[in-house]
Amino acid sequence: MLYKSLVRSTIDYGLFVYAPRESSQILKLERGQYLGIRTALGYRNSTPNNVIIAEVKIVLLLDRARMLAKNFCSKILKYKEKDIKSSLEALRVKENYAVYRNPLIKKSVICTAWEQVSKIRNEFGTPASTFEVWKMDYDTLTNKIKVDLDFGQQLQNCDKKRSRVVSNINGYNKEDLRMINEIKKKYNIQDDLTMIYTDGARPKKLRATGASVVFEDQDESYSISLPRMCSSFTAEAFTINTALELMIQRIRSTSNDIINDIIILTDCQAVLKAVTKNIISVYQNRYILEIKTLHGTLTNIKKRS
């Protein structure tokens, strides 16, 4: 935390713009990162750099610059920033001409990212006129969503070789039934409860990212394959967003707008923490914003009922 707040936050600012092309210059930046990690975490000078990177689980600055550049270029294409788009296109033309004149010249990080992202521009969907966050009202953005991480921590700490004896009730094992009963007791929930299970994953050996939603009171599940560049975080957020959409459709398809208590169980702690953050930023994941919007819709339906 100390390193990320004091060192990396400074290095990240405009990193993909000023990232050097020569290996010797890149090494100087990397040494600055190594020094920051050693100072923040107390590593000895004799500790190899590759060991530090592996233990701290921080990517090299050049790789991070490439990632930030791709994210930036993706947003430019998605949200039709015409002026910046024209500047990037002009930069691409100039650097391609320079490489044509001298093949030894290396392209900048931002130019390379722009070329890579431009090749898959059709996969970004319909361009948006503005960032989604500006279309949302303040109450929806700052509304506090109830998130409980304690039960997930309890399951993580329990024995991995737990009993696999399936109960006669909905196919749960004993540990799952105990957890559900504890949730009901903690939040004073009656039997009128809708349990939804979501999961998203990106297996390394597969070419696509999977996402699925299961309603406890239904005999079928919903699953979909997402694009291969989709991260596990986005897949998990997508499943929660889909679960809320399906729940709203179910409520509106009935004659009355009576809504039961809803619990969504997911194994992605990062998404849950992102949902609870009340940071107004254009760089939030699209599905995180949609989750907040749908949660606000369900809250209003609950109040009316």
Describe the structure.
With 305 residues, this protein is an alpha+beta fold. It is 54% helix and 9% strand. A hairpin with a 5-residue loop joins β2 (209-215) and β3. The chain is globular. The two termini are 44 Å apart. The relative contact order is 0.09. It comes from Lasius niger (Black garden ant).
Features:
305 residues, alpha+beta, Nucleotidyltransferase, domain 5, 2 domains, 4-stranded mixed beta sheet, 4 strands, 54% helix, 9% strand
Q: How many helix segments?
A: 13
Category by helix and strand content: alpha+beta
Query: For the record, what CATH class of the largest domain applies?
Result: Alpha Beta
What portion of residues belong to β-strands?
Answer: 5-15%
Largest sheet: 4 strands, mixed
Report, as a whole number of angstroms, the end-to-end distance: 44 Å
Classified in CATH, the superfamily of the largest domain is Ribonuclease H-like superfamily/Ribonuclease H
Counting structural domains, the number is 2
How many strand units? 4
The rough form would be described as globular
Outline of the structure:
By secondary structure, the chain is α+β, with helices and mostly antiparallel strands.
Helices and strands in order:
Elements: H1 2-12, H2 15-18, H3 23-41, H4 49-56, H5 61-78, H6 82-101, H7 109-119, H8 138-142, H9 150-157, H10 174-186, E1 193-201, E2 209-215, E3 221-226, H11 232-253, E4 261-265, H12 269-276, H13 286-304
Parallel strand pairs: 1-4
Antiparallel strand pairs: 1-2, 2-3
Helix pairs in contact: 1-3, 5-7, 6-7, 11-13
